[in-house]
Prior knowledge:
InterPro entries: CobQ/CobB/MinD/ParA_Nub-bd_dom (IPR002586), DNA_Partitioning_ATPase (IPR050678), P-loop_NTPase (IPR027417). The chain has a single domain (8-253), classed as 3-Layer(aba) Sandwich (Rossmann fold). It is built from 9 helices and 7 strands; from the N terminus they run βαβααβαβαβαβαβαα. It has helices at residues 21-36, 51-65, 67-80, 95-105, 126-131, 144-162, 185-197, 234-239, 242-253, and strands at residues 8-12, 40-44, 87-89, 112-116, 135-140, 171-176, 201-202. Strand 5, helix 6 and strand 6 form a beta-alpha-beta unit.
Amino acid sequence: MDTKKQPLFIAFSSQKGGVGKSTFTALLASILHYRIGYNIAVFDADFPQHSLMKMKTRDLAMVMENQHLKKLAYKQFSTINKKAYPIMQHKAENILEAAHEFSNTSAVPIDVIFFDLPGTVNTPGILKALAGMHHIFTPITADRLVLESTLVFTQLLQDVIMKKGETSLKSIYLFWNQVDGRESTLLYDIYNDLIDQLGLHVMETQIKNSTRFRKEGEENTKSVFRSTLLPADESLLKACRLDLFIIEFLKIIKL
């Protein structure tokens, strides 16, 4: 009998592009792997963008060209005594089987596998892949079209997939991203009431809007935000409340 500990399968998933699912995948994977000490792996199935595969290539070049980041990376990997987490490109239709195979054959026990999945239900195998997750986190913004699309998608997951029982899903959580401090808190209260009436869950922590989510890193920068090789700078995390988000995230997944 196989008694090897099985990893948690987690996806930041959305039917809308540009809301931050690839960014959050990289942010959480890097913090958990490099700073907190868990063993992480990532599967990139977001065809055709494959944002995380491209991010890894960019990050390697950036670290090699920036002397400060090169020293940071050397110190980090010498201290934690483990390699960068793997990012593997794969199609959505048989990604669960690939992830289980990877976990079972890995020399290092994997705690969490993050999945960056396509943003459309028309992708072959996407519903099966989502049903195979343990936890799904979905970023939302205070945009009516984004919100309506996301709520329909999330209700589909909860009412069709979770309630049928043929799933590994333990939780689905929405969370507010790109929150502008100038926007009315009343607006978010109204939206939260609507989400609650639909029987859906929203995280307490709201992520503040920040240009760091869109910056790829300046040539001579001495700090990083989203990177597959280094965890985000702690001061940058606090500035957009991601430090609080990570605490709440870990409580939800019970890692």
